[in-house]
Design a protein that fits this description.
single chain, 342 residues, alpha/beta, Quinone Oxidoreductase, Chain A, domain 1, Rossmann fold, seven-stranded mixed beta sheet, six-stranded parallel beta sheet, 11 helices, 17 strands, 27% helix, 27% strand, globular, binds zinc ion
Length: 342
C-alpha cells in the first residue's frame, strides 16, 4: 500500500509499505480521509532522531471498516468511523470514560496512531475496535477526519468554557483548530473575535463566522479586544497557538470573571499573576484533545446544525502529493488540509 512518512527536518516521502492485517480485537480501516493537524508539524520539523521515521503519521483518520480481526464484537465490515487516535488498556477509569490518551495503565498496548503506531497517512491502517467512533450519515469522511482531532479539540475547550450567546469569545490562532473553534462558537451564538498574524487565515475566520478580526502583527491584540468590547475585554478566550506570549494575551484579553482555555501545545507561559489572573478572577482551563464521546457529540452538533465545516478545507490532496502538501502547510497561512483516498 502507498503511504507517507516523515524523514526529519521538514523532509517527507511517499513510499510503499507492507500490507497490514488486523490482530485480535482490531479492525482494518480503509482510510478515506486523513487530516493534517498543526501538531503534525511538530513531528515534521523535528530532527530524525527525535521522531519515529518508520511509522505513517496522521492522527486524524477517518474511513470504513474493511476487515475484522479475531474477537471483534461490535464493528461490522462497511461501518463508517472516525478514529479516536489513542489506544489504551481499555480497563482503567480514563479508558472507560473514553479518554484513552489518559490511560493510567501504560504498556505496549498504549498507542498513539500517527506517532508510536501507524496513522492515517496511508491507504489502510489497523486500529483497536475500541477506538472507532460512529459518524452521523450527514458527516462526510473529510469532515470526519477534521473531527478526529482538531475540530473536536476546539469543541471540548468551548464546552469547558460553556460558550453561549451571552459571550464574546476571543480565539487566538486561526489555524485548523482555532478556525474550527470560531465556526463552532459562532454557531453556539457567541460573537467571536478571531486573532492571527495571517490575513489569509483571518479572511477564512470571517467566512467561518467571526464577528471581528484582529491581525496581531499590526496591533496590540489585547488593546484591540478591549476596544471592541467597550473596554471590558472578552468574556472568554481560547488559545490555539501554543506560545507563551499568546497564552498571556489570552488571559489579559478577558474581562473580570472571565475564563480562558489553552489547547495549543508546547513551550511555557509567564503570567503576572496578580493582574493577569488573581485580580481578574480568571478561570483557566487546560484541555487536551477530546474523549471518544466528545468526538461523537461534536460530530452530532455539526450534523444537527448543518455547520459547513467542509468550507474550512482549503485543499484535498492525494496521498502521492503529501510531500508538497506538508511543505505548503508548514507555512502556516493555509486553511485545513486533508489527504483523501478514493
Ligand atoms: Zn491533532
Ligand atoms: Zn487505560
Amino acid at each position: 500500500m502507498r503511504g507517507a512518512r516523515f524523514l526529519g527536518d521538514r523532509k517527507a516521502e511517499v513510499t510503499d509499505f507492507p500490507d497490514v492485517e488486523p490482530g485480535p480485537n482490531e479492525v482494518l480501516i480503509k482510510t478515506r480521509a486523513s487530516g493534517m493537524c498543526g501538531s503534525d508539524l511538530h513531528a515534521y520539523r523535528s530532527p530524525a532522531a527525535e521522531i519515529n521515521t518508520e511509522n505513517r503519521p496522521g492522527h486524524e483518520p477517518c474511513g470504513e471498516v474493511a476487515a475484522l480481526g479475531p474477537g471483534v464484537t461490535k464493528a461490522r465490515i462497511g461501518d463508517r468511523a472516525m478514529i479516536h487516535h489513542y489506544e489504551g488498556c481499555g480497563h482503567c477509569r480514563f479508558c472507560r470514560e473514553g479518554y484513552q490518551q489518559l490511560c493510567s495503565n501504560r504498556g505496549p498496548w498504549t498507542k498513539y496512531y500517527g506517532g508510536s503506531a501507524h496513522g492515517g497517512h496511508g491507504e489502510y491502517m489497523v486500529v483497536h475496535e475500541s477506538t472507532l467512533v460512529p459518524m452521523p450519515d450527514a458527516i462526510d469522511y473529510d469532515v470526519g477526519s477534521m473531527i478526529a482531532c482538531g475540530t473536536s479539540t476546539a469543541w471540548l475547550a468551548l464546552e469547558k468554557l460553556q460558550v453561549s450567546g451571552r459571550d464574546i469569545v476571543a480565539i487566538f490562532g486561526q489555524g485548523p483548530v482555532g478556525v474550527a473553534g470560531t465556526m463552532l462558537a459562532a454557531e453556539m451564538g457567541a460573537r467571536v473575535i478571531a486573532v492571527d498574524l495571517s490575513d489569509e487565515r483571518l479572511e477564512l475566520a470571517t467566512k467561518a463566522g467571526a464577528w471581528e478580526t484582529v491581525n496581531a502583527s499590526n496591533v496590540d491584540s489585547v488593546e484591540a479586544i478591549r476596544e471592541l468590547t467597550g473596554g471590558e475585554g472578552a468574556h472568554a478566550s481560547l488559545e490555539a497557538v501554543g506560545a507563551g506570549p499568546t497564552r498571556k494575551q489570552a488571559a489579559q484579553a478577558c474581562r473580570v470573571f472571565g475564563r480562558s482555555a489553552l489547547v495549543g501545545e508546547r513551550g511555557d507561559a509567564t503570567y503576572d499573576a496578580t493582574p493577569d489572573i488573581i485580580h481578574r478572577h480568571l478561570t483557566l482551563y487546560g484541555s487536551w484533545t477530546v474523549s471518544k464521546f466528545g468526538m461523537e457529540d461534536c460530530a452530532n452538533f455539526i450534523a444537527d446544525h448543518n455547520i459547513p465545516m467542509a468550507s474550512l478545507i482549503e485543499r484535498r490532496v492525494n496521498i502521492e502529493d503529501t510531500v508538497e502538501a506538508y511543505e505548503y502547510f508548514d507555512k502556516q497561512t493555509s486553511g485545513k488540509m486533508v489527504i483523501t483516498f478514493d
